[in-house]
């Protein structure tokens, strides 16, 4: 075993042992943190993620993803250097949030529709938060200010788009996967052929496919919930032990260096571990300008928290996709998005018309984001439709310079 692996095992074992001691020393706080994490999973994550997990499995089984991938090839390959099926992953990930992008990427890799490098590019920019959390939980629930939803959403998703464009330079000499239909064309006939071929290769009847989809999705959603609870308990134990003091001091030094208030240290440190805790701390920070509080929240949302990182790692464990490219993409995303927010703050927040247009599309209820769940299928269809239109335009634009077969 390499030396670095030996040391990593020793450090991990010691960390887990210390965590166990801290939980034993503070049982009530650990219990309350576990209940809080379980509530987050049951109230938000389960209803918003589980249906998309099941539907995505069924769409893969019926070959619909393969057909969509054929149509989106002219857009996704030139821009992001991923197959067209990555457009489907991007659309459904935009609607439901992490970790469904990693789940679908792993499935596509297992079906040999992606190479390792393409999968690493895809999971890097399709790991983003969902609109329910951005609008309902963060803007309304934590900040009590629906007007900031537009700038938070735009900065977060524009940052993800920039990550996708930057990740196209990842592994520049790696070979690309072949087109789903094997001919490199992107018409409706080829899409139907790819869908039919994928359905025949799967071969499972609908009842068996539905059962397998539910079982697989339940396993994954339980893993997601368990990780959320674990990191909530871990962070609470570290807070009560006083070990977080050094992290807070480091965060204060970094914030001072970039010219931001040190009162956001709690949000930054909490967000490193868990998204919800960091975003809620950013909203509760006192004596801090709203723009800086929103920038801290976007930093946390784009980083994802170690809880999300653990979810992605557990999903990619059955593939040969590597974690370091994903880690680098999260770090860059967490820097790009706050910068974008601060740049867009004055133009967008000073324009009430932009906020009114946003509210007409996404009404933010006073009770939080639960009422927004009904809008997720609409958002998925909207994003997918936009990708289809862009793919058609790309096909027309690039047709004159395509090589004849």
UniProtKB/TrEMBL annotation:
TM region(s), chain numbering: 6-28, 40-68, 80-101, 122-142, 148-167, 218-238, 294-315, 327-345, 372-398
Keywords: Membrane, Transmembrane, Transmembrane helix
Key word Repeat present: no
Keyword Transmembrane: yes
Nucleoside transporter/FeoB GTPase Gate domain mapped to chain residues: 45-156
Superkingdom to which the source organism belongs: Bacteria
InterPro entries xrefs: Gate_dom, Spore_IM_YlbJ
UniProt cross-references to NCBIfam families, sorted A to Z: spore_ylbJ
Protein name (record): Sporulation integral membrane protein YlbJ
């Amino acid at each position: 075993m390499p030396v670095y692996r030996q040391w990593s095992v020793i450090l991990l074992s010691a960390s887990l042992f210390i965590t166990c001691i801290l939980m034993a020393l503070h049982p009530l706080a650990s219990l309350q943190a576990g209940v809080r994490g379980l509530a987050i999973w049951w109230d938000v994550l389960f209803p918003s993620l589980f249906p998309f997990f099941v539907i995505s499995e069924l769409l893969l089984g019926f070959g619909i993803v393969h057909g969509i991938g054929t149509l989106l090839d002219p857009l996704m390959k030139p821009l992001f250097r991923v197959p067209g099926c990555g457009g489907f992953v991007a659309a459904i990930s935009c609607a439901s949030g992490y970790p469904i992008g990693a789940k679908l990427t792993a499935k596509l890799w297992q079906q040999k529709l992606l190479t390792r490098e393409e999968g690493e590019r895809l999971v890097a920019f399709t790991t983003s938060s969902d609109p329910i959390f951005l609008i309902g939980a963060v803007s309304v629930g934590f900040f009590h200010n629906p007007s900031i939803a537009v700038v938070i959403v735009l900065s977060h998703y524009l940052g993800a788009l920039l990550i996708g464009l930057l990740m196209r330079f990842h592994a520049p000499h790696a070979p690309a996967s072949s087109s789903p239909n094997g001919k490199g064309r992107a018409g409706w006939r080829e899409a139907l052929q790819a869908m039919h071929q994928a359905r025949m290769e799967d071969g499972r009847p609908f009842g068996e496919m539905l059962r397998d989809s539910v079982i697989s999705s339940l396993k994954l959603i339980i893993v997601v919930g368990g990780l959320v609870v674990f990191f909530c308990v871990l962070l609470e134990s570290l807070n009560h032990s006083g070990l977080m003091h050094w992290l807070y001091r480091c965060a204060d030094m970094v914030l001072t260096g970039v010219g931001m208030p040190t009162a956001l240290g709690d949000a930054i440190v909490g967000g490193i571990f868990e998204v919800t805790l960091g975003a809620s701390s950013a909203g509760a920070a006192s004596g801090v300008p709203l723009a800086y509080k929103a920038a801290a929240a976007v930093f946390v949302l784009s980083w994802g928290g170690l809880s999300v990182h653990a979810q992605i790692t557990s999903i990619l464990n059955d593939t040969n996709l590597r974690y370091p490219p994903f880690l680098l993409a999260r770090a860059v995303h967490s820097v790009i998005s706050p910068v974008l927010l601060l740049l867009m703050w004055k133009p967008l927040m000073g324009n009430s018309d932009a906020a009114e247009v946003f509210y007409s599309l996404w009404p933010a209820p006073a009770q939080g984001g639960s009422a927004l769940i009904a809008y997720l299928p609409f958002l998925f269809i909207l994003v997918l439709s936009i990708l289809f239109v862009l793919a058609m335009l790309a096909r027309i634009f690039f047709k004159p310079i395509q090589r004849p077969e």
